[in-house]
Write a structure and sequence with these properties.
Length: 248
């Protein structure tokens, strides 16, 4: 056993911390916040767990991504909108060689998304929202969403996330930031496409009751996935951890 930070460092450059071993090789990174007792939500939303440090980490990870991947349920629950970057955010992105737009891709098998959502209408013309679905999705819904965004069909009866990653990479998404939810995280791990988990641990006990963890869905693998800790930050009792999946 050893201390990770025998000599604490103040004023860490958060962007540099999350860019290390990421900005150049790229990959698929998953970002989550959880309470100490494992809850991934408070009052039904992740916002109930966020701290000032977590908000800075969230922004920095977006600054270091070519695109954001999110499940439809999370996009609706969290009120996702098209991303229009401020000049300050553009400065950070250019610092690490990223482009001036941050498109969003939403995974949805049933296509319950409405075309008039800000997720589509507020997206810049050069960063239209992408809907990742499968061939079994209703054709009329696919056509309606194709009017306001781009529809990417990956898989037949369900979304093939390995194919989705390949398709997004072909569009220049070398650094993909997946922002949940828990079911999408489970599906991504099952598909073998996750390279890194960034976990913010909030010093909070949500308490007993039905608790959603950061990963959900049917059992998809027989053995636990091994993780390797590659970085840790702390602020006001909150921890910000970076893990690599060891077999990636």
């Amino acid at each position: 056993m050893r201390a990770l930070l025998p000599e604490p460092i103040d004023d860490v450059d958060v962007h540099e911390f999350y860019a290390a071993e990421w900005a150049e090789p790229g990959g698929l990174r998953v970002d989550f916040v959880a309470a100490v007792d494992g809850a991934a939500h408070a009052a039904g939303r992740s916002a109930g767990l966020q701290t000032p440090g977590d908000n800075r980490v969230f922004a920095a990870q977006r600054d270091l991504a070519d695109g954001v991947l999110v499940g439809a349920g999370t996009a609706l629950a969290e009120g996702y909108r098209g991303v229009r970057l401020t000049e300050r955010r553009l400065v950070q992105r250019r610092r690490f060689g990223l482009g001036d737009v941050l498109p969003i891709a939403v995974v949805s098998r049933r296509l319950t998304l409405e075309p008039d959502l800000p997720l589509f209408l507020e997206a810049p013309d050069d960063a239209r929202t992408i809907v990742v679905t499968c061939a079994a999705a209703p054709a009329d819904r696919r056509a309606a969403l194709a009017e306001v965004g781009e529809v990417l069909v990956c898989g037949e009866d369900d979304v093939d996330l390995a194919q989705a990653r390949r398709e997004l990479e072909a569009r220049g998404w070398r650094r993909i930031l997946a922002e949940g939810g828990p079911t999408l995280f489970g599906d991504l791990v099952a598909a073998g496409v996750v390279d890194e988990l960034c976990l913010s641990v909030t010093p909070l006990l949500v308490g007993p009751g039905p608790i959603t963890r950061i990963i959900a869905g049917p059992a998809a693998w027989s053995l636990p996935e091994d993780l390797r800790l590659i970085g840790a930050l702390e602020e006001d009792g909150a921890l910000f951890l970076r893990y690599r999946l060891t077999d990636r």
